[in-house]
Amino acid sequence: MFVKSYPEVTADPGVRRQVLSDSPDLMVVAFRFLEEGTEGKLHNHPHIQSTYVESGRFRFTIDDDDFDVGPGDSFIIPSNAVHGCLCLEPGTLIDTFTPRRDDFL
Q1: Non-local CB neighbours of 103 within 8 Å, separated by 6+ positions
Q2: Residues paired with 51 in a beta bridge
Q3: Is residue 42 part of a domain?
Q4: Model pTM?
Q5: What is the CATH number of the domain that holds 66?
Q6: Is residue 66 part of a domain?
């Protein structure tokens, strides 16, 4: 078994990102939101994304849909959908991307 270790980096103010594992077709990334009110700014990308809420509470926007999520919730963000989130309670999101997000390496 081959295990790589990736550093934790600042993604946005109050948000830390760490790649947990990757291959050309798949990537798993932890996003740690350190403070209430911190934002994952609206953006889009060609990757399909799955998000799992490990801890904390968040308000997500995907295109024109807003919804709140908490521990144990998960959902899919389609390719090129405009999305972002507001941290309601500090916590961690585990995001999976297909294919891999080379811009995170």
Answers
A1: none
A2: 75, 95
A3: yes
A4: 0.95
A5: 2.60.120.10
A6: yes
User: What is the residue-wise DSSP string for the chain?
Assistant: -------EEEEETTEEEEEEEEETTEEEEEEEE-STT-EEEEE--SSEEEEEE-SSEEEEEETTEEEEE-TT-EEEE-TT--EEEEEEE-EEEEEEEES--GGG-
With beta carbons less than 8 A apart as the criterion, state whether 77 and 43 touch: no
Domain tally for the chain? 1
Q: How far is CA 8 from the centre of its chain?
A: 14
Residue with tokens 């350190």: 34
Q: Which domain holds residue 90?
A: 18-104
pLDDT digits (tens, 9 = 90+) for 41-92: 999 999 999 999 999 999 999 999 999 999 999 999 999 999 999 999 999 9
